[in-house]
Structures are given as structure tokens and as C-alpha cells.
């Protein structure tokens, strides 16, 4: 295992310390590194909290800040955070207008956020993200997995919270954006979890895993490596079948790297995906390209398509100031 | 070779097309993809042009936009752009106040930018970046190599050009920022150039290349993999010896991934580097962390330290709107 670390037991703590040092203008670390929170809270605003296993950086801590999340709870690599982390985060950032959890659909995350919600007496205050169209049920889920579409949900709901939308409206908005968002990914190589020390899965030099999960979980099929155009057609075929959009529909296109993929290749995928979406009669109104929802150093990418209306697009464009995404400020 | 591509001969063209599609609000492609230029030029402003081999994305095209470059000329992967590219770019973006080239110190880049300068009758209009303290002379250079510090030179000079500084002042500023900037990197794995199809160099499962160049060129030594703290101490030892800064000096710290390194590890390096710089009496006034000057999918990172005065820091902070870096707008 080749990693820039000191020890597998200290990776998360040192990474969080480095993150907090690098972005001290935006975030601050909670006691015992239980959560990362916005340095400057906005009183009277609904507090948005997310979290999950680490190893997907910049998700979620990189999305804490003005116009997105109020706090993120990092678990160990590919392990859920514990309910006391969400409890501590909620107590730190609740400005009196309520707390909304945004949770990717994994059994561990669901259970622990649910326990935290019960401890906080929160009702109907969780947006569940399950945008991965690759598989129904999986290694760690009942139902579909939550993957890169989480970024889009967190951003649009975050902007709505920033403008003052109330809890019930935000919950409904998050559910609606999740419904309008679909993703699917492909892996060329495995990642190696530091504590494991060996690759999560074996894959041949000429193979790829289509529909892979962000922890290296199996997808739909293990096949020979295809071209960028073929991969984009495969992923978008599944995505567009799921979304069933009408011609002319405005969409956001997110081409997301899994951590070990050069930006040059991601833009080749953008080229391929844009041609397919245009040919399908859709209008790509916004692009986001980069490694945002990662699987450590896994090579590969996912494509996310999110159908937006004028209000959602205005929320997407609203001022945003986080470590990983910034515009308008 | 596992890459998200269609064909090795079309990687660059399709990547540029994807880039231009994704960032159509900021950039436009020149004819025959000779250059990427700002969509909205500013009349009367000195035009800044950079370029070099591709495979280092987002450098340089990702830095084209308000507050940074006016144009970037992409060569084939790890190959210099040709003089006609710089000529075409200069003709497209020269707003009447002159043209300044910012060039990384590689023999091919130097020669081709020099030829373009002669064709354009430009004199004393090139800032040469040679921030890599790893080695004097190298595979592709006489003298030191230009690496991630190029980003800092392009940013600070770009902001000064945006505020209206004249050509001679910008040339002097660029030279001064380059002098105040030092970098060194370490590679854990090799990259694979698409047209070559095999790794650029062989390295053992327990080895790292200290002082590696951004094309995988040899550095100072091939040694056993060390801890993040040891690597940071090694790199910063060389950097700080070169810069010979006084205690209290404000610095920008850039921890740069080479393309295949998870963000989590880069923040571990930030944690390590920040401790060392603070212990050395320096003040880290700004952080930049991410994969900005890459070597395709090479795993590893570089550290850059740039000493700044109040004026340079204000320029660093000034509004910036490029594909890869954005703040204040």
C-alpha cells in the first residue's frame, strides 16, 4: 500500500486537521473532531447536516459553508459516523429553525442518522439520497445507493436554506431534487482502504466494473474496457431511462472523478456525454467536472444528470463559499 | 493502459472540446484548437499567455479567465506547443498593451516560446518559471524545472495585469514572484503517457522518487517510502534552504497532487507541512490544496512555498474567475 500518510490510525485525524487549517476562514472543527461546521453560522436558518464514511473527499466536509452545508460528520474511511457525532453537530449549528439531515442511502448511515434524529426528537427531517441507478439493493443498501448526486441535492437545498426556506419546504425540495437526479459510475481500478492495506477488489488489466459503488461495491457487470464514447453511452443509457425526461429539459451534467482519474480524461467524458445528451434533445445548462465524490484513489468516473427548473437553477447559481465549490463570493 | 479515452490520437482534441463545452462562459477555443482564450477580453490590458505540454491539467487552460491568463497553448501530452500556436494566441488576445509569455523552464517550451517572441517582435516579454529546487539541470532542462509554482506566478501576475499594470512592471513582478517561490515533489507511482502505453518509469512497491519532475523525470533520490511527516520535512527542508526566509515571513502554501492522489492524503500533507512551517517561524497566510499541476494519474504530491508581501497577497486575493480556480466573483 502506497499512501502519503503517517499511520493508518491517524489518517482521518490528520486529514481533518489539515483541512481545518487550510480552510480556517470557512470551517471549524468540533471537539474531538466529531464534525466540521461552518465558522460563521446564520441565525434563524434551517441547519443542514450531512456526513458519512471518509474517503470520499471533498464530500462532505468540503461542502460545508455559505450556501451549502452547516456541518458534516466524518466517519472512519468507508464507515458511518456515529449518532453522537450528528447529535453534537446538531447542537452546535441549530439556529432555532430546525435541523435537516441529508443522508446517502447506506444501511449504516441510515441507522445512525435515524438514531440521532430520535435523540434530537426530529421528525420528517431527513432527505435520503439514492441517485445510483446501477443496482436495486446492494452490498450495503436496501434500495439504490446514494452517490455523486448527493452534491447536487446538498447544493440546491443549501442555497434554499440560505435564502430562508423553512424546514418542511427544504425537505420537500431535497426529495424532489433527489427524484430528478440519477447517476451511474464505472471503475477501472480498485481503491485500497488504509486499514485494510490491500485493494478492495481484484480487476483484470483489460477490465472495468460498470455500475460500481463508491466503496468499490460490485455494479451491473464486469466487462472488457470500452472506449469513452461507449462508456458514456452505457452510463447515460441507464440514467436517461430512469429519468425519462422530455426533450428540451434543462439539466446539470456532473462528470465526477473517483480520485485517481486525470482531469484530462474527465473532460474526454464530458465531450462524450455532452454529445449524447444533446442528441437526446436535452439542454445542458450547467456543467460541473472534477473529483468531488471519490473513492480514495480509485480510477474511473461517474456521470450524474439532474433535471432542473428555473428556481432550482437559480439556487444552483446562488452565492456559494465552501472549500471545494465556490462561486459568486 | 487503462484510460477513459477513445483513441490515443484524439485524447487532446476531445479533452479540449469537453473543457470548452464545460466552461463556455469563461473560455473559447481557437481555430484548430491551437489555444484556449478568455471569452471576454479586456481592451487595453497586457495579454498574458502561457502553455506547455498537456497532461498537467488543469494547468494551463484551467487558469484562463478573469484575473489570470488570457490564453493557454496546449501541446500534445508532455510535448511543447509549437510557435504557431503562441503566434495565433497572441494575435487573438493582444489588446494593444503588449503580450507577456509565462513559460516553464523546459528546453522545448523555451525554444518554441522564444521563436514565437521573435515572430512577434517581442522583447523582454517572457517570465521564466524555474521553481523546482530538486535538481540543477535535468532530463529536459538546463537549470531548474518549472513546476507548481507556475500557478502562483500566473495568478499574481494575472491579477496585476487585470488592475492595469504595464508590461515592464508585469515582467519584473513575474520574475520577482518566481524568485520568491520554491517547490519540490515526490512520486509514489509513475504515470502512463497515452501514446506510449506503458509507465514512464518503474518503481518498487515500497519505493518513492524524491524530487520527481512533473513528467516523471528522475529527482534527487529513489528511497523507501517514508511517512507523510518525513516526506514533508524532506521537501520543505530543500525548499526553505533555497528560499532562506526570515522568521515572520508570510507565505502561501500550495500542496499539489499529481493526479492520482486522494484529497484525503493531500490534507495529511497540509497538516504535516503547516506544523513544519510554523515551527520554522513562518506564517502561512493562504493555503491552496488540490491537484492543479498534475502528471496524468501519477500518485504523489509537491509542496510549494511562496513568500509574499502585502501587495502580492492583495493580488492573490483579487477577484479570479477561471475553470480551476475561482474566488471573489
Level-2 CATH architecture of the largest domain in chain A: 3-Layer(aba) Sandwich
Order of helices and strands of chain A: HEEEEEHEHEHHEEEHEHEEHEE
Please bin the fraction of helical residues of chain A: 25-40%
Annotated CATH homologous superfamily of the largest domain in chain A: Dihydroxyacetone kinase, domain 1
Describe this structure in words.
- Two copies of one chain form a homodimer.
- By secondary structure, chain A is α/β, with parallel strands linked by helices.
- Chain A folds into two domains: 8-180, Rossmann fold (3-Layer(aba) Sandwich), CATH 3.40.50; 181-319, 2-Layer Sandwich (Hypothetical Protein Tm841, Chain: A,domain 3), CATH 3.30.1180.
- The first copy, chain A, is 32% helix and 23% strand.
- In chain A, the strands form three sheets. Chain A has a six-stranded mixed β-sheet, with helices on both faces.
- The longest helix of chain A is centred in the C-terminal third of the chain and has 17 residues, at 263-279.
- The radius of gyration of chain A is 19 Å and the shape is globular.
- The termini of chain A are far apart.
Fill in the keyword field for this structure.
329 residues, 15 strands, six-stranded mixed beta sheet, Hypothetical Protein Tm841, Chain: A,domain 3, Rossmann fold, 2 domains, alpha/beta, homodimer
Layout of strands and helices, then pairs:
2 copies of one chain form a homodimer.
Chain A: H1 11-22, E1 27-29, E2 36-38, E3 47-54, E4 65-66, E5 71-77, H2 83-93, E6 99-104, H3 107-119, E7 126-129, H4 149-163, H5 167-179, E8 181-187, E9 207-210, E10 221-224, H6 228-243, E11 250-257, H7 263-279, E12 283-290, E13 300-307, H8 310-317, E14 320-322, E15 326-327
Parallel strand pairs in A: 3-5, 3-6, 6-7, 11-12
Antiparallel strand pairs in A: 1-2, 2-5, 4-14, 8-9, 8-13, 9-10, 11-13, 14-15
Amino acid at each position: 500500500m502506497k499512501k502519503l500518510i503517517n499511520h493508518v490510525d491517524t489518517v482521518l485525524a490528520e486529514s481533518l486537521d489539515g483541512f481545518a487549517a487550510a480552510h480556517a476562514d470557512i470551517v471549524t472543527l468540533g471537539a474531538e473532531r466529531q464534525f466540521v461546521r461552518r465558522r460563521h453560522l446564520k441565525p434563524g436558518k434551517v441547519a443542514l447536516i450531512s456526513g458519512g464514511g471518509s474517503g470520499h473527499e471533498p464530500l462532505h466536509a468540503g461542502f460545508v459553508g455559505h450556501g451549502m452545508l452547516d456541518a458534516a460528520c466524518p466517519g472512519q474511511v468507508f464507515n458511518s459516523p456515529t449518532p453522537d457525532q450528528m447529535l453534537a453537530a446538531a447542537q452546535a449549528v441549530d439556529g432555532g429553525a430546525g435541523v435537516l439531515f441529508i443522508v446517502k442511502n447506506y444501511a449504516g448511515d441510515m441507522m445512525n442518522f435515524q438514531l440521532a434524529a430520535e435523540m434530537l426528537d426530529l421528525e420528517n427531517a431527513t432527505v435520503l439520497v439514492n441517485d445510483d441507478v446501477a443496482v436495486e439493493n446492494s452490498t450495503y443498501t436496501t434500495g439504490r445507493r446514494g452517490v455523486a448526486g448527493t452534491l447536487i441535492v446538498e447544493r440546491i437545498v443549501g442555497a434554499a436554506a440560505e435564502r430562508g426556506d423553512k424546514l418542511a419546504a427544504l425537505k420537500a425540495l431535497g426529495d424532489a431534487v433527489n427524484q430528478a437526479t440519477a447517476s451511474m459510475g464505472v471503475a477501472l481500478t480498485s481503491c485500497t482502504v488504509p486499514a485494510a492495506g490491500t485493494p478492495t477488489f481484484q480487476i483484470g488489466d483489460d477490465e472495468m466494473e460498470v455500475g460500481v459503488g463508491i466503496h468499490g461495491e460490485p455494479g451491473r457487470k464486469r466487462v472488457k474496457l470500452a472506449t469513452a464514447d461507449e462508456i458514456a453511452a452505457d452510463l447515460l443509457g441507464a440514467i436517461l431511462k430512469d429519468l425519462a425526461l422530455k426533450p428540451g429539459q434543462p439539466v446539470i451534467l456532473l462528470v465526477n472523478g473517483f480520485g485517481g482519474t486525470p482531469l484530462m480524461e474527465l473532460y474526454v467524458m464530458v465531450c462524450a456525454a455532452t454529445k449524447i445528451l444533446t442528441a437526446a434533445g436535452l439542454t445542458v445548462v450547467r456543467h460541473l467536472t472534477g473529483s468531488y465524490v471519490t473513492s480514495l484513489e480509485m480510477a474511473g468516473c461517474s456521470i450524474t444528470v439532474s433535471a432542473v427548473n428555473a428556481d432550482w437553477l437559480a439556487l444552483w447559481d446562488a452565492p456559494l463559499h465552501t472549500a471545494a465549490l465556490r462561486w459568486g463570493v
